[in-house]
Structures are given as structure tokens and as C-alpha cells.
Amino acid sequence: xxxxxxxxxxxxxxxxxxxxxxxxxxxxxxxxxxxxxxxxxxxxxxxxxxxxxxxxxxxxxxxxxxxxxxxxxxxxxxxxxxxxxxxxxxxxxxxxxxxxxxxxxxxxxxxxxxxxxxxxxxxxxxxxxxxxxxxxxxxxxxxxxxxxxxxxxxxxxxxxxxxxxxxxxxxxxxxxxxxxxxxxxxxx
Length: 188
Hints:
The chain folds into 2 domains: about 1-110, Orthogonal Bundle (Rna Polymerase Sigma Factor, Chain: A), CATH 1.10.1740.10; about 115-188, Arc Repressor Mutant, subunit A (Orthogonal Bundle), CATH 1.10.10.10. It has about 190 residues and is an all-alpha fold. It has helices at about 5-15, 20-40, 45-60, 70-105, 115-135, 140-150, 155-160, 165-185. The model has no long low-confidence stretch (mean pLDDT about 85).
């Protein structure tokens, strides 16, 4: 894996339209990001589509990346995770609409799926609150939370990654989630 500072430099060059930097960014991060997508959508072809869409998004939005707010891999993982969740939702919605269309014999009504500006603002505020609360959590608990929720690892995978027993990982996750919950409730 490429060092975080190297990824930051690559993202800065991608923001300027540097295709060679984009290729290096892809080569350095795609295997890990594909793993995140695959863990969420559980199908290789859908994970490949998610990864492609996520990198198109990264190319288009590289200029908004802020190193002060997150590590490059965290930012890219969030893009992949959000795209994968969108893919799951759209798949479920498409199956439900298809069944309804078959029953009623009517054509589907297309809805405007563009983001609502107020919802985007609320999501940004929530993300900042979560980031602030995560920073207040101790190292092992924060690391376990990040591995589970940002990288999509299972409890046993986290235990292997941090080199600790699975019982410790579960305790750290539970305590970390409780601290996160209390912090977010205090901010509300």
C-alpha cells in the first residue's frame, strides 16, 4: 500500500487532471477498495461496477478532497462504501418496481434522484459530528470501529488485523459504539 502522503500527492495531481497520477492512484488503492465493495454487494460483477463508479466520482471530485478532514484511503473508502450502498438500494428498488409493474401491468414512474441540498447539508453536519466524536475515542476502540465501518471487515478479520483476540475486539467495538452514541447524543 502506498503511504498516505503519497496518496495525498496523487489526489492533488488528479485534481489537476493528471491521468498518470490517476492511474497510479487506481493501481495503489483498487485492490483494497474492491474488497470493500465486494463485502457490501457480495457479487463480483456488481462490485466491479461500484469500483468503476467510485473512481469516476473520485476523478470528478478530487479537487474537494481535504487532507485535514480525512486520510486519502478513508475518503476513497467512503466513496466506495456509499456507492455500494446505493447499488444495494437501487437493486432492491428495481426488484420491487419490477414486481409491482408485473402485477399492475403499468410502466414505472421515474423519480428525480438528485440530492436534496438540505439533505446534503445535514449529511455533512452528521459526518463532521461523527468525525469529532471518533477523535475523542481511544486508539484500539477507534481503530476497530474504523476497520468495521469504513473498511467493512468482520470481527474476526479485525482481530487478525490488529493481532488481538476476537473477544477483545468485540469489547472494544461495544465500548467504542457506546462512547460514540453518548457523544452524538450530547451534540444533539
